[in-house]
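hey so i finally got around to running both of the ones u sent me last week. sorry it took forever, my laptop kept dying halfway thru and i had to restart like 3 times lol. anyway pasting them below in the order u listed, first the sequence line then the structure token line for each. didnt double check formatting much so if smth looks off just lmk and ill redo it

first one:
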Amino acid sequence: MNGNFRNCLAVTLGYEGGWSDHPSDPGGATMKGITLATYRRYKPGATRTQLRNIPMKDVEAIYRAGYWDTINGDRLAAGVDLATFDAGVNSGPARARSWLMASIGGPDHETVRKLCARRLGFMRSLAIWNTFGRGWSRRVAEIEARGVAWALARSKSPVQAREQLETEAAAASSRSRTQTVGAGTAGTATTAGSGDALFNPQHADQIAGWMLGGLLTVGAVVAAILIIRAIIHRQRASAYAAEAKRITS
């Protein structure tokens, strides 16, 4: 799928497009997803100020050489290229390639889904998931849905593609509802010493804090895991529904 670099870059920059210098981010200061260390490999001695004012031609050159060419983006199918490229930007091209190789098999849109699932699984294993997890999972959901939409556009009519995206949205929404109900059941089945329920599906942020503090019983931990999954599938449902609306007959 030659010539899709700029389309993929535009999507990725929608998430990476600003200045960031969060103390919990191990990558340090970044601009348009480019760390100072990366920019210095391209422009030795670059300062933080220069990074913050990086010209677009440098952005494109760094992303093409450092990520797109490294994952052989021009040889990947539409949608697969986006999922692999965006994963490479977040977690490194080597990991993205390994996720791709483990996901190949079947239609391109299935490859996108499998790759994004592996990517999200890796993210959930990181210690900083509790800080960045909600934003990360939303991004992966949107990349998955966009990648699937691009892949379907190459093999199906607009009507068929829209119907499949709507089906994916409905399935994800159903999973979210099921897991939310399961979370409520698991959480309310386990009580604190005072007899109060430890879990309310509406209190996901509190749940994350309790997990870190080691204050949850087994039932409430199960509830917390289920509500996190419910949130992820709700994000996927929203992303797929949005992609379906983009398609015109």
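and the second one:
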Amino acid sequence: MAERIEFEADVFTPSGLTLLVDGTAQSHVDPVDPTRLFFEYVRRIGHVLDAMRPAREPISAVHLGGGALTLPRYVAATRPGSTQLVVDHDAEVMAIVLSRLPLPVGSGIEILVADAREVLLPLTERPPADVVVVDLYARLEAPAFVDEPSFMAGCLAILAPSGLVVVNVADAPGLARLRAQARALARADPRAVLLIAGDPAVLSGAEEGNAILIAAPGGLPAGLEERLLEAGPFPAAVLAGHRLDTVLWSAC
């Protein structure tokens, strides 16, 4: 059955749009001001991207999952000259997004319609990425393979030595999905530093919501934890080190 793909104007700004697929919000984008990140988890990922290098310095990024191309547009606007590859399996969504909201000329954003699992090995032949953003959802469900160490190992394999994997995790109370994906990253590279950021009620396991999971084989950028706590959206919590171990592993 064909998907119902539409854009809905938001009520907060004159130019913000929400991408809906079969009535479910998939992305929010402001084509007039692509630096405006509306969804809370997207803003937290934006803070990670901001911390990677000095302001305006280009980066290379791979985005597994495209939506309305919110984060690629953000990187292109905040770090001109960046090279980015977006991988999304849904050709219809990508075609409608690009028709309604074309990318700026010279954006440095390449679109590849493909299954994320199938491109990871070929991507090892390309220059390494500074960041891999994993945001793979069909409506509200993530594919089962994101819980697999082999998939996370593939994401880590395309990173530069100081690169980061950043995963959007939409979870129910109890943190089952977050635990599974953290375990997958830990098994893929036991030496990688892990950090999780989100709303305290979500990270406690009490409420459903989104968290971001970060894996840094070469160590986290300086000041990242402080940036995530201080820059919002609020309330904010960060789990790292022993606190992360206690919350994620003690109940496993």
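quick thing i noticed on the 2nd:
DSSP finds nine helices and eleven strands in the chain.
anyway thats it, ttyl
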